[in-house]
Design goal:
By secondary structure, the protein is mainly alpha-helical. About 70% of the residues lie in helices and about 0% in strands.
């Protein structure tokens, strides 16, 4: 749910144009509050022992789809290739799932803290990286025809 929430934030705060994207409904304040509540719920549930490993099949597929949709929406809104955006988003989501899983285990052992403590830091990093990624995506500049003399 982090990706849809970041998309909503970008649409409402930075003027990201989502009108022709799969996330056009994410501009509304009700959707934003709902997405934020779901993110908070997910962040809490992610720390529970019953939550499946983030690299398990269904969880990984869900992350890939959410990341792909978010990437496609941002690329489309920024007038870039939507398929490239979907690929970048999906690969980033899957790569991040594996990277954070192994880094989290290593960090918990190295710093001798609980996995939950490292998971909280991971959530903050994910939010920061998402905000940076959205702010770095710039629209392709359209070339204006030369002025007639």
């Amino acid at each position: 749910m982090m990706a849809p929430s970041l998309i909503n934030w970008a649409a409402r705060r930075t003027g990201l144009d989502l009108e022709s994207t799969p996330f056009s409904a994410f501009k509304g304040p009700g959707i934003g509050r709902t997405a934020a509540a779901l993110v908070l719920g997910e962040l809490v549930a992610d720390k529970m022992p019953f939550d499946p490993n983030m690299s398990d099949g269904t969880a990984l597929l869900t992350r890939a789809v959410a990341g792909g949709a978010a990437g496609a929406a941002i690329f489309k809104a920024r007038k870039n290739n939507i398929l490239l955006g979907a690929a970048v988003g999906a690969v980033a989501a899957v790569g991040a799932a594996y990277a954070t899983y192994y880094l989290r285990k290593k960090a918990a052992g190295y710093f001798q803290v609980s996995d939950r403590t490292v998971a909280l830091a991971e959530d903050g990093i994910a939010l920061g990286v998402g905000l940076i990624a959205i702010s770095m995506s710039k629209p392709v500049k359209e070339v204006e025809p030369p002025a007639e003399a």
